[in-house]
Amino acid sequence: MTLRVRYATAEDIPEALRDHYAQTESGAFVLQAEGLRTEDDVEAVKEALRKERDARKEAEKASKDRNLAAPDLEGLRQVLTEREREVQALNDRLDESLGRLRQAGEDRLKAAVLEACARAGVRDLNRTDAWRAAKELFAVDDGLSVVSKDGERTLDGWLAEVRQSGGAAWWDVGSGGGMPPSRASSVAPNPFALGSLNLTEQGRLMRENPDMAKRLREQAKG
Asked: What is the pLDDT of residue 115?
């Protein structure tokens, strides 16, 4: 008698052999023998192999996707770097243009102040002082026109106010009687004299008006 490995139902199994069969998850009855591989065992092995093949395919696909994505990411980095360079170049040109604009405005203001000083009779020696003081009160607008920061005065009017108030010794003071004008020494002390020693003013005078510096130095020696 040949033993069958598998029966569909318990009724199909010879009664004397029923104790040697066990029902599987599929519902069939399979012979229980040591070392015997059933169809279920084979199916289980096939399923394991299938899962392994699927896992390998997924891993290979993920690897290909990463390899494809890497050049794209590098390309994006290069594009971003190039854009950053372009933005920096634009900022540099903007800073350069603003610098030229500021310099043009300062040059325009200085020229206007020196012209006003000439009209008002400010001594050449003191026009730089007037320019420095004017920078605190006046500016140049977008049209390169000189305007006061408070909007209430002009360069000529400001110089007239300064002269009238006597707040700065920028003008010659006439001595009368046909005598040539004298300097307002009480307002502008001799920077070379011992009692009014001023090294900064000495340096300025020697740069801007060497002859005046020489005369004041001689006066200080007595």
From this structure: 92
